[in-house]
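Quick review question:
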């Protein structure tokens, strides 16, 4: 029995924070988990920048509403879900994910939540559990599932390395060089073929 666990941003949809950075003209917000392995450090850095510029949840959600899945992502996901169960494991937040899940056909997503003040200021964030992607894969394995996992960033490596079959997708040259034993793919067709072989 298999479950495929996929990252969201950089794999199925563009990076939310990069889109927000471009929309607001704040280059510091371009930093993602491809650049910073420590997610807590990265989020606290982002929250400080939001506060400094007086930006809140509404401004981010307005940008997210303009983001479409990557070309071919929904078709890839539809075909994959016709073959096996799929869970998207993301370090994004429920307040960000809903419009994107709608565009992807409402797949299952496990993610985190933001703490938001009445005035819309993002004051903090609540992680679902520690090392959420790795912890989720371990939990699914403990109830009898074989996991196939794919992602692009540092925060995906825990689940990719723990999975029975793990693949990098559209990753950075540095991550690919640091983990030469992990198969790395650039197109949905390549990834789908690899997953089908693993099923």
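Suggested answer, residue by residue:
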């Amino acid at each position: 029995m298999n479950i495929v666990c996929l990252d969201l941003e950089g794999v199925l949809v563009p990076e939310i924070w990069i889109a927000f950075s471009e929309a607001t003209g704040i280059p510091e917000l371009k930093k993602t988990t491809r650049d910073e392995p420590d997610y807590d450090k990265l989020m606290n850095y982002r929250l400080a920048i939001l506060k400094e510029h007086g930006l809140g949840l509404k401004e981010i959600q307005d940008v997210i509403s303009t983001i479409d899945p990557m070309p071919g992502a929904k078709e890839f996901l539809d075909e994959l879900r016709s073959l096996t169960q799929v869970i998207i494991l993301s370090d994004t937040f429920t307040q960000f994910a809903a419009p994107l899940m709608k565009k992807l056909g409402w797949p299952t997503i496990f993610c985190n939540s933001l703490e938001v003040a009445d005035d819309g200021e993002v004051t903090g964030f609540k992680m679902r559990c520690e090392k959420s992607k790795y912890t989720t894969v371990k939990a699914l394995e403990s109830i009898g599932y074989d996991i196939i996992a794919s992602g692009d960033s540092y925060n995906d490596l825990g689940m990719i390395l723990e999975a029975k079959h793990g693949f990098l997708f559209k990753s950075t040259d540095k991550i690919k060089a640091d983990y030469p034993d992990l198969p790395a793919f650039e197109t949905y067709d390549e990834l789908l073929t690899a997953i089908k072989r693993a099923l």
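Why it works: The chain has two domains: 2-13+69-113+128-198, 16-64. The first strand starts at residue 2 and ends at 6.
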